[in-house]
Fold these 2 entries.
Entry 1:
Amino acid sequence: MTPQIVDRTPVIEIMIENPLLKKTYPKEGAVIAVIDTGYEGFLLIPEDIFNHLGFNQLKTIKRQLILPNGETITSEGFYGKIILTQINQSREGYIETIKNLTEIVIGTQAIKNLKLTLDYCTNTLHTKPCQTKPP
Amino acid sequence: MGLITVSLNDEVERTLRKLAREMYGNKKGALSKVIETAIEKLAARKQYTEKQTIYRAYKNNKLITEASSLEELAEKLNQRGVDPREVRILATEDIKPRARIGYRMK
């Protein structure tokens, strides 16, 4: 199993799908996405993966992302699906990309129904679906 | 606590009384408890349904089809012979026009 804390950063294994064009990334197995609770969105992916999934061929939607220093940048995205392979759960949301991004970042929209327990003593991250409906 | 009078057909009334007996025996208020539980469940289900995202596909500003998942939408577009590249997809769950990005981004 892939380590769930890499360089003190929590990560989660996912597969990304574009159901409209029936494209998946990666084709087999999973990739790791960095969990960033400061990101309010669903999923941010590098441009090459966005294009590989064919999202750039669809009528994408643009929006503004606010950086921690207050500056804004424009992202481009479309609706897609992720599979959280370790708990075998899928969810749909707005998958976006920005220029010069090199890692996959998963945000609070995608983890809102999960119980994540971060344990730096054992260097593990436990992921479970919520037992009760979140408020 | 409110007191209301409702009319039930014979079959539903029999089911209600049977459920009350099975769930609460002959205790006082058993019928009310069954109805309360049923209404709570219906309300929770309705709330869940209302929160479900609906995806709508538009071509030339005309609604082509809608679905409750992307896979279903893809299937419906395929059945109509519509290329997903030609449609604009909107969802009932809005995308925030401005969202915060985390400290990992520089």
Note: Chain A has one domain: 5-129.
Entry 2:
Amino acid sequence: MMVGLRPLLWPGGLALVASPGLAVLALVTLLDAAPPGETERLLDRYALHVLAFTVLQATLSTALSLVFAVPLARALARRPVFPGRGIVIRLFGIPLVLPAIVAVFGVVAVWGQNGAINKALGTIGMEGLGPIYGLEGILIAHTFFNIPLAVRLLLPAWESIPGETWRLAAQLGMTSWPIFRLIEWPRLAEILPGIAMLAFLLTFSSFTVVLALGGGPGAATLEVAIYQALRLDFDIVRAVFLALLQVVICGAVAIVLFRFARFSLSEAGAGRVTRRPDSHGLPGRIGDALMIAAGIFWVGAPLAGVAISGLGGPLTDVLARQDVWLAALRSVLVGLGAGVVAVTVGLLLGATTCDLAMRRHRRSLADVLEIAGSQTLIVSPVVLGAGLFVLLLGHVRVFDWALPLAALVNGLVSVPYVLRLVSPVLRRTAAHHDRLCANLGLAGIRRIVWLEGPLALRPLATALALATALAAGDLTAIALFGTEREATLALLLYRALGSYRMDEAAVIALLLVLVCLAIFAAIEGLGRVAART
Amino acid sequence: MPRTLAFLSAALLTILPAHADTLDVYTYESFVSEWGPGPQIEEAFEARCDCTIRWTAVDDAAILLSRLRLEGSGGDADVVLGLDTNLMAETLDHGLVRQHGLVDLEFDLPLPWNDPVFVPFDYGYFAVIYDDQALPQPPASLDDLVSGGNGADLIIQDPRTSTPGLGLMLWMKTVYGDSAADAWRTLSSRVLTVTAGWSEAYGLFLEGEAPMVLSYTTSPAYHQLVEGETRYRAAMFEEGHYMQIEVAAMVEGTDQEDLARDFLRFIATPEFQGAIPTGNWMYPVIDLGDDLPDVFRELPAPAVSLLLPPEEAGAMRRQWIDEWLEATIGE
């Protein structure tokens, strides 16, 4: 890729056709399918209620997550060295990649009517918890995802506080509260709005958690209502209307997020040793220990629930079933398909944005293009899927294409991860080697084979592994496109949960986690081996 | 390696479309569960047809209508089994089913049946089933249930996905008419959860999550015959009970017309019908004579049986569902 005269536009162009091109196509399809005269029926109290509930649960989820994440992150920041700290930080990374339907099972196994907590309460003769279906269950599951996410995003704020500040604070004899107010809060205030908006966006578009834990039309998000209208009720008009509502609101939040958010999803939490004056007192130690223990419990208990119930479940019965292994095979196929889609689109887009940013000095245009490639935050998988569904309806047998369609939608969802992992490598390569390559006349395919290929292999493998594992555990797209015939493990698990076959669900949940882990480890490992040779 | 290949090819074969002599029957989950009538009916029909029945089961029967519409003419279905009279008109209007061409079918139903498309396979009456250990004083009327004399929780099904859910919606409509929405608003505060399908709701009820569940007057027969348990009873309502006649039909896009017709004819035989009372726990559509368990003769009969004409239910369903949605989501 010698610095050509003309910008390298075709790869990015191709990528944009896929994403957001497909999303635009989906939206146009939806708009086209929406008859004009029916808005009166559509913006009825039901739609308003769904909208209100979606906003309510997203707001509560976000608020609860941050209220707990800030003190938890602070406790972790105040204790940069303790045995097992690294494990805690890693534990907090698990919900990010855990299939949502598995998390739902974990939450039910701990907090459900027949869950661990109720059993424990029962043995000491106390009244059990009420049913978790509805808002309570949704909030428990969402905070399970968002507290650790927020903690990991918050931690860099502390690591950016220079050592001199702490020395100064010590000389001034500052205690915990002034330290928080004067030193920590200003830094948190910079990044909290962005994190809040991200958490809001993620919970606003929550599908799996709400579908599985909602418990009736009163507790549905727009995403779930779209799915119900399309798949269960064949009320395409309503589905279209709700989808457009979803896009408008997510679009508005996302635009604010992209404009104002100041945080990076960089790996955080290595724990820089700082000498802050307020970390020695016993009350502080106890408080931090309790906070960290609570965090470990909140995130760890559902994970332990999955492991323990799974291992204690009817392993041999479930694992002897052919349909379970076929479902596992389909999960892997959807995952691999999605991985290939994500990496292809991400690489094509990355090539163009790298060229624009590094060689054409059009960095802001490059950023806009990368954001456009990340449009699935705005056009959610359900909306994208609904659009494709309506588009294909009547032309092909949609259910026959369930697996490829699920792979496609999941692949596009993962494009941002690929960009984040691969784009820096491409740009670094351009910055360091462009001149040398020009001197050597190394260009085109040869440059990719000799230069970019080896350098980008590891991050590419990681991106492929991540996209594949995420898609293999996804329920959203397969619920939309699939039927019992094309059930993946996630769909089997959802159906087992829905029929209260908890023993069976336990084993499938564990199997699904292991399948996702195995795919991730295998692809990442292959990448490591290939990069070494 | 050869074993892996063998497994993979077996897997592929399972994914590939069915053979020519396969009859695809779309139905609902509880019909084909291991304790439902499906397995017995499958065995009996396969013994005489030299074919294979392939069941496709959705959560509950009202999904069948949207499923057929979503699949269009390209679907696999040959027979759809589990719709009821409330869904017949729409199924016809969308051209999803075709005439069976059978002229000699005879039924023993509470009302005359002579439909060129739909074949009834069982019937029953919707009822609130209660656990008399958790609820000694059940509601004596629908109005009693709604206005909450006993204040107990109830589990119901979603009328968009479930035929019992749809049945309750129409039951409320026939009793309350224009004030049905208000009645739903009152009732919905005590609805513990609205499930997608009957199986889920009844499972929750048996787990003890709520003392009442929407099911059928015939449901207690299961507990009496199979479990020797009499604590689960049907609350008999003064206003009467909405009736359900479950039907099957040949799907328009079938590629197994003869097989499908044979299956529809088979429905009206004692072999099929014999599996209904103690499999689907509904009344058979022909006179089974002594083969009908006595429990079924002893079950309480509704004071009045309510049923809207299929055309009216079909024409109003969408509007009434919107009304139900608005009323049940609370303020």
Note: Chain A has a mean pLDDT of 86.
